[in-house]
Write a structure and sequence with these properties.
alpha+beta; 29% strand; seven-stranded mixed sheet; At1g16640 B3 domain; B3_DNA-bd; single chain; nucleus; At2g31720-like; transcription
Length: 243
């Protein structure tokens, strides 16, 4: 049963002339808690602490949880801390870390033409102007025997400079070219170079004799290959490297 406060409960109260209405209210709550604790033989509640600064009374108080009064400390609300002299010091905040740290995107240069191919092309065949045309992953469409073609999408081509203006015009006019291709086994094969336009996309293709190259070199889906271009007697030639 709740007991009401009487004058006797405040006989030991020392009134501060600077108290305001809120200070009186806090003192009444404190006295009520003391009376409640005494009636239940419980330890007295913590004292109400008041500290005066240049802005008035700065109150810091804590209620005993046994009477159902709780004060939760919101970390976001703690914007200032007292340094003991009345000055306010901003709390030190830890720098935020992003969940994912960006890694420096340093492009890895493609490996150079294998020495054995360079020796064959440059020293034995007299080839010049080696250029990497494309490095790509073999897809099923590249080894599909029904299609019999190796695609070289424009979006993946490193450079189109392996063709001169006359050769590029021939392909634009839908005139395919017969070129020499060194396959991964370093065997030379005559193959057809063409240009296809499919909707808004364009690509070069090696066709006609592509299926034997796939079979003889055991090319499969997921293999990474490079297609290099070079000139021999001013004619475009190619070398297919399996990485």
């Amino acid at each position: 049963m709740m007991e009401l406060l009487s004058r006797d409960d405040f006989k030991d109260t020392k009134v501060d002339p600077n108290w305001g209405p809120f200070d009186y209210l806090l003192h009444v709550v404190h006295v009520d808690q003391q009376k409640f604790q005494k009636s239940h033989n419980a330890p007295p509640p913590p004292q109400i602490l008041c500290k005066q600064d240049h802005t008035g009374f700065k109150l810091r108080f804590k209620f005993n949880n046994s009477v159902g009064l709780k004060r939760k400390r919101n970390l976001k609300a703690v914007e200032e801390e007292d340094d003991g002299d009345g000055d306010r010091v901003a709390p030190k905040l830890k720098p935020k870390r992003s969940k994912k740290q960006e890694k420096s995107a340093c492009p890895i240069p493609p490996p150079d033409l294998p020495p054995k191919f360079r020796q064959l092309i440059v020293e034995e065949m007299g080839g010049r102007g080696l250029v990497l045309v494309i490095q790509k992953t073999i897809f099923f469409s590249d080894i599909n025997p029904t299609a019999s073609r190796f695609s070289i999408p424009f979006s993946q081509v490193k450079t189109h400079d392996f063709l001169n203006e006359a050769e590029a015009k021939e392909l634009d006019d839908k005139n395919p070219m017969q070129v020499l291709l060194l396959d991964p086994s370093m065997k030379g094969t005559s193959i057809t170079l063409n240009k296809w336009v499919m909707g808004s996309s364009s690509l070069y293709v090696l066709t006609n004799t592509w299926n034997p190259i796939v079979k003889n070199n055991q090319l499969k889906k997921g293999d990474t290959v490079q297609l290099w271009s070079f000139r021999m007697n001013s004619l475009p030639c190619f070398a297919l490297i399996k990485l």
